[in-house]
């Protein structure tokens, strides 16, 4: 690539869930040039990235950053946080359970002083998402899971739902809507939906290029320094650099670039260019509890992803969004229970209740200026002052026990094996559930938007990094607070919205065209 070819109007760093959307949409305008820089390879010829039923096969494998946490004060210290380094990012290996942004979540952002993200403004952006989202097809609905859903609806008095995203709701039970094509089971990753087969002279995709730092010139982002096959390469941006590296790696990149909390940067030996104490703070995730039963009889393997259904409900009457969201998997994920000593029989089934609106706040930070060094993660799960998260974790299991007594689910069960029927008091339940909770891989909120004058806001309401110009963040890290339900629909919506914000800010008139790699290089 020539020197001239290293200059673009926009550089998007991170070709993951949000980054693919931003790069694809911006490059729809032929008068601008866009460069998407992704640390991993293309997903186009990776068979495991095709059928969504194979979602788990890439976890903890060669594309997975597989981040660990520091020792946890009140939660599980053994969580493995999957982050996929491949085009499409986590949308290339997740289960794509997708929700239209909930009004209550967006109202909460408004109450935090974030402007321009009201439900009426944001909901139409969900309809722009080009990644197909469909209710789990009748042919993919497992009969055993259907029995569990029916029992949950009647035991807990929840409205049964065949669809979710065409209405506003706070409660319900049913098969989910997921990002897939029911006819082929192909996943709706954002790479597949927005980039595969796209050939545009103004779109350059640079793969296997780890961005080390954003280059600032008098607080203006003017480019990025990358490592491609160990070689340093500089890319220049005329208009903007957009960081879309996800909730762990976006704050890490800002910190390596001299933007972040001074004590962290000092300790890592990095000069502070913009002191922003909120970078890496405010980390949120959905802590997921587990209840396992010995099962009776056989179950068929029919499914879309194996995590196709569940129920969501409020516990506190005043809540505007669900307080607990429970997944009903076909195959359990019981590694933490087994590590804790639980004996799980071969024939078993489980429910996984999530704390939907976590109040605990964690943190991510770097300890080194090396771009490939894993950032430190501290979830600080169950450290909220009022103990609400712990209460919801326990309540999720108690509600699941009620469902287990209800037909047509009860006949599938022999007995509860984890936490076990003998574990009854709040104290006992809390201890075992906190030690074994799983992540739902929904880490978010570490570069959050916030009001002017909010000392921990990293971004303004238009996703611009405070104190810098020409620099935005667009991914799961920007959320001021985590959505009650699975966030990927919201992340894609944020990306669609970001494109309008970026275009609106652009100077009028065409710019010189560059861009010398077309489509996705092999
Ligand atoms: C196993 C799993 C299952 C999940 N299931 C669901 C679900 O069913 N529903 C749901 O709502 N959510 C789900 N999630 C969460 C959801 O996938 C994420 O919230 C979402 O995809 C995050 O998108 P993102 O754009 O923030 O980051 P990502 O999609 O992670 O993208 C970040 C990209 O940046 C790249 N990158 C990072 N650092 C650099 C760098 N320095 N230089 C260049 N590139 C870089 C990465 O390689 C990656 O491609 C799941 C996640 C996982 C892991």
TrEMBL record:
Native organism: Microbacterium memoriense
Domain Glucose-methanol-choline oxidoreductase N-terminal, residue spans: 246-260
Any Pfam family the entry gives: GMC_oxred_C
Listed name of the protein: GMC family oxidoreductase N-terminal domain-containing protein
UniProt family annotation: Belongs to the GMC oxidoreductase family.
PROSITE patterns linked: GMC_OXRED_2
InterPro entries: FAD/NAD-bd_sf, GMC_OxRdtase, GMC_OxRdtase_N, GMC_OxRtase_C
Superkingdom classification of source: Bacteria
């Amino acid at each position: 690539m020539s020197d001239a070819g290293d200059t673009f109007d926009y550089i998007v760093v991170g070709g993951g869930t949000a980054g693919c959307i931003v790069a694809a949409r911006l490059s729809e305008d032929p008068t601008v040039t866009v460069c998407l820089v992704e640390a991993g390879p293309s997903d186009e010829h990776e068979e495991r990235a095709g059928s969504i039923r194979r979602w788990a096969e890439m976890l903890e494998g060669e594309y997975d950053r597989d981040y660990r946490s520091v020792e946890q004060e009140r939660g599980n210290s053994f969580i493995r946080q999957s982050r996929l380094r491949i085009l499409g990012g986590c949308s290339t290996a997740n289960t794509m359970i997708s929700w239209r942004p909930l009004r209550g979540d967006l109202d909460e952002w408004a109450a935090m002083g974030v402007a321009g993200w009201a439900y009426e403004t944001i909901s139409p952006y969900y309809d722009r998402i080009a990644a197909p989202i469909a209710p789990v097809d009748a042919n993919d609905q497992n009969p055993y899971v259907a029995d569990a859903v029916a029992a949950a609806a009647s035991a807990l008095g929840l409205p049964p739902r065949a669809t979710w995203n065409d209405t506003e709701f706070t409660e319900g039970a049913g098969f989910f809507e997921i990002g897939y094509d029911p006819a082929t089971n192909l996943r709706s990753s954002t790479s597949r939906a927005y980039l595969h087969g796209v050939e545009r002279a103004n779109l350059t995709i640079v793969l296997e290029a780890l961005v080390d730092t954003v280059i600032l010139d008098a607080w203006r982002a003017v480019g990025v320094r990358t490592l491609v096959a160990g070689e340093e390469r500089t890319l220049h941006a005329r208009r903007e650099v957009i960081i879309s590296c996800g909730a762990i790696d976006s704050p890490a990149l800002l910190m390596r670039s001299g933007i972040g909390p001074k004590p962290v940067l000092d300790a890592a030996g990095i000069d502070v260019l913009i002191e922003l104490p909120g970078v890496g703070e405010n980390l949120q995730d959905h802590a997921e509890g587990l209840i396992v039963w010995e099962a009776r009889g056989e179950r068929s393997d029919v499914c879309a992803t194996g995590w196709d259904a569940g129920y969501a409900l409020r516990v506190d009457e005043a809540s505007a969004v669900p307080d607990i969201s429970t997944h009903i998997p076909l195959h359990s994920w019981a590694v933490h229970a087994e590590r804790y000593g639980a004996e799980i029989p071969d024939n078993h089934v489980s429910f996984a209740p999530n704390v939907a609106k976590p109040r605990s706040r964690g943190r991510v930070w770097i300890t080194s200026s090396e771009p490939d060094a894993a950032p430190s993660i501290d979830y600080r799960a169950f450290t909220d002052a009022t103990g609400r998260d712990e209460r919801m974790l326990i309540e999720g299991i108690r509600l699941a026990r009620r469902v287990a007594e209800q037909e047509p689910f009860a006949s599938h069960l022999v007995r509860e094996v984890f936490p076990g029927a003998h574990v009854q008091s709040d104290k006992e339940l809390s201890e075992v559930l906190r030690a074994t909770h799983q992540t739902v891989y929904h880490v978010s909120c570490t570069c959050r938007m916030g009001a002017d004058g909010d000392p921990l806001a990293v971004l303004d309401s238009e996703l611009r990094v405070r104190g810098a110009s020409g620099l935005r963040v667009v991914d799961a890290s920007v959320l001021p607070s985590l959505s009650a339900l699975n966030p990927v629909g919201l992340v894609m919506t944020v990306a669609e919205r970001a494109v309008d914000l970026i275009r609106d800010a652009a100077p009028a008139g065409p710019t010189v065209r560059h861009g010398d790699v077309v489509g996705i290089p092999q």
